[in-house]
Design goal:
The protein folds into 2 domains: 11-178, Rossmann fold (3-Layer(aba) Sandwich); 184-381, Dehydroquinate synthase-like, alpha domain (Up-down Bundle). Helices cover 46% and strands 12% of the residues. It has helices spanning 45-56, 74-85, 97-109, 184-203, 209-231, 236-252, 260-272, 276-294, 296-301, 303-306, 315-329, 346-356, 371-381, and strands at residues 11-14, 32-38, 60-67, 90-95, 132-136, 148-152, 159-163, 171-174. The strands form 2 sheets. It has a 6-stranded parallel β-sheet with strand order 1-8-5-4-2-3, with helices on both faces. It starts with 10 loop residues before the first strand and ends with a helix.
Length: 382
């Protein structure tokens, strides 16, 4: 566990009707704004609400629903050119992690001479980013309160993780009314991805006493909310509670890091053109098994958030009980239980392992995982 270092200068609006605060984010001096979103959301009620709110508040939106499941980082170059010729004064990202990552890259690169392929965690630029507001249309993301993004490489089509130290969203809006246009299946998977992110951030060697507090709260809220999301996915109160789980998890990740499960989910998802959230649900039990081996004490401490009575049990026995409790809560019939159900083959596993080893946060795992060990976990999930 490392020392606490935390600086999040952006504004956060998280409530029912939070969208009405759009004009109070960072656009008070700018009126021509590029909105980047998923193509699947362009006919939905949420985008209509954003457009109407912007019109009412005097914001001229240029809406670009260019991000689809097959998008590579080439879309960043296309949207950046649109932003330049349109003389935009800010960017809004609305959608899933892919759309938000593309929007972030456009905001960061707008005033630079860099190409998207030049963008990496080592990128340092003196050019200021465009004002940027983030509006998630899904629950889980490892990047809400840090400078992260994940882009699909235009050449090998695999996910490329980037963390920029000097970039964070200027404002962040969570409104339950904006999370109903993705399918029910995807929303359930997104909540389970939030659970994976909370667990991996809690396990991470980058964690602090503050991030542990936030992430444990995220774990408890996610598991507590899952039945409601399954039974009443459009209930505003259920959606808002799930957003709270995502908020605590995202805030925790401002001080911590994801793990090999998240990295593998995005890399496999990019290879197979499958949403990373769906892959994450398959890998979650194997990340828990990994935690049992390398940090059983942390697994055991999760018991309090789950309402487990662990009095008198050893650390290992308590950790086993916690894992079994979580496993029992994960039975979702609509979601795949094996990677093979998604079309994953042995060749995909080898390619994924190679890519995961290059992910920036892989050195922050609570215990070392080399290529053979990682291949074993993925193979067991096949």
């Amino acid at each position: 566990m490392r020392e606490l270092e935390l600086h999040i200068p952006g504004r956060v609006f998280s409530s029912h009707s939070a969208l009405t605060n759009l004009n109070d984010t960072c656009f008070s001096g700018g009126r021509r704004i590029l909105l980047v979103t998923n193509d699947s959301l362009q006919g939905g009620n949420a985008l209509k609400m954003i457009r109407e709110t912007a019109d009412d508040q005097g914001i001229d939106l240029i809406i670009e629903p260019e991000v689809n499941p097959f998008s590579t980082d080439e879309v960043v170059d296309k949207l950046r050119e649109i932003a330049r010729i349109s003389y935009v004064e800010g960017v809004i990202g609305f959608g899933d992690v892919t759309a938000l990552s593309v929007a972030r890259a456009v905001a960061v690169l707008h005033k630079t001479v860099l190409n998207t392929t030049d963008l990496s965690s080592d990128t340092s630029t003196e050019a200021p980013s465009l004002p940027y507001v983030e509006i998630p249309a899904a629950y889980g993301s490892p990047f809400f309160f840090n400078g992260g993004m994940v882009l699909s490489d235009r050449y090998d089509k695999t996910a490329r993780f980037i963390y920029l130290k000097k970039f964070t969203p200027d404002a962040f809006i969570q409104d339950p009314a904006l999370l109903k246009d993705f399918s029910r299946k995807y929303r359930i998977a997104s909540l389970l991805e939030t659970l994976l992110l909370a667990i991996e951030g809690y396990f991470s060697s980058d964690s602090t006493y503050f991030s542990d507090t936030l992430l444990l709260r995220g774990i408890g809220l996610t598991i507590d909310t899952l039945p409601g999301v399954l039974e009443r996915p459009d209930d505003g109160e259920v959606v808002f509670k799930a957003q709270q789980a995502a908020f605590f998890t995202g805030y925790g990740h401002a001080m911590s890091s994801p793990g090999w499960g998240t990295a593998s989910a995005y890399i496999l998802g990019s290879l197979l053109r499958v949403p990373a959230s769906i892959v994450a649900t398959v890998l979650l039990p194997y990340v828990l098994e990994y935690g049992l081996k390398v940090c059983p004490d942390k697994v055991a401490r999760m018991g309090n958030m789950l309402g487990e009575n662990l009095k008198g049990l050893s650390v290992v026995a308590a950790a086993d009980r916690v894992v079994e409790s979580i496993r029992a809560s994960l039975g979702v019939e609509q979601l795949p239980g094996r990677l093979s159900e998604l079309g994953v083959q042995d060749t995909h596993l080898s390619q994924t392992v190679s890519k995961v080893m290059d992910v920036p946060f892989i050195n922050s795992l609570p215990g070392p995982v080399g290529p053979p060990e990682l291949f074993g976990y993925l193979e067991n999930a096949l």
